[in-house]
Amino acid sequence: MTPKLRLEHVRHEFTVRDPDRPRRAPARFTALEDVTLDIGAGEFLVLVGPSGCGKSTLLDLLGGLSRPSSGRILLDGSPVTGPGLDRGLVFQQYALLPWRTARGNVEFGLEAKRVARRERARRAREYLELVGLAGFEEHYPHELSGGMRQRVAIARSLAFDPEVLLMDEPFAALDAQTREALQDELLRIWTHTGKTVLFVTHSIDEAVYLGQRVAVMTSRPGRIKTVIDIGLDRGAGTDPRSDPVFGQYRHTVWTELRGEVTAAQRLERTAASRKDLPHG
Ligand SMILES: Nc1ncnc2c1ncn2[C@@H]1O[C@H](COP(=O)(O)OP(=O)(O)OP(=O)(O)O)[C@@H](O)[C@H]1O
């Protein structure tokens, strides 16, 4: 079966100028190397890796915001050549339009898609309800809490019905309780809509809780080190966090990640002392 998303030997290089030596030819450095990964339709895959290993770069490539230096990225078997409404991006920062209400923000993407006004209003209401914000449609972002703003951002991404959700640390800025509530909300939405989700996080707990599979990346240049299947029972009425296997999966991910984090920290220290390479 054709995977929903396929990364084939993806490599990505950046060109960087040294501000202290502006006449010098720009240096090239490799952020991603030989990344190969398939993500099935309707799958929830979580990506973890040390700081600066290229997770956001990978999401940018999948979002079509930049092109790989080599290798291919395929969506339903066709190369990704730019951004598209088939992929919704959710970032750590809410990126809401402050002068628009929650409803206005959700309707924004639908306007670009030329959805009729009445249908826009209907869908905005439906998706705000789905993320638990019924009754807050006419509130402006500054009248909402951080968690609520992130819900609006998720509703906005869902409203134009993308097949794939690309989420870059979407809950990182939230307090622990809001974060856990939104994780549950996201799992509920995922079950309800069958979207394909690629979710980046620094939190091992979050990765194990959300992911059907967790892909661990190496330190720079980022590669896929291993992919771990998470076989947790997420049925109604269960609490996967209290399941003893939760701790085992957590330990497995942590063990894979630990050496990479140390290597990334070493790289950062060397870069900082040489000041010749950017660091994440
Ligand atoms: N536009 C750019 N130009 C040059 N270097 C860049 C650019 N964007 C990212 N980098 C570098 O590429 C590497 C990977 O960055 P990226 O943001 O993808 O990592 P990350 O894994 O998402 O990091 P973090 O977990 O800290 O968010 C880093 O060393 C970063 O400094």
UniProtKB/TrEMBL annotation:
Keyword flag Transmembrane helix = no
Q: Does the keyword ATP-binding apply?
A: yes
SMART domains membership? AAA
Check the record and name the CDD domains matching this protein: ABC_NrtD_SsuB_transporters (cd03293)
Question: Sorted alphabetically, which keywords does the UniProt record give?
Answer: ATP-binding, Nucleotide-binding, Transport
Citing just one GO molecular function, the answer is: ATP binding
Domain named ABC transporter: residues = 16-244
Q: Fetch the Pfam families from UniProt.
A: ABC_tran
Q: Which InterPro entries does the UniProt record give?
A: AAA+_ATPase, ABC_transporter-like_ATP-bd, ABC_transporter-like_CS, ABC_transporter_ATP-bind, P-loop_NTPase
The identity of this protein, by name, is: ABC transporter ATP-binding protein
What species was this sequence derived from?
Thermobifida alba
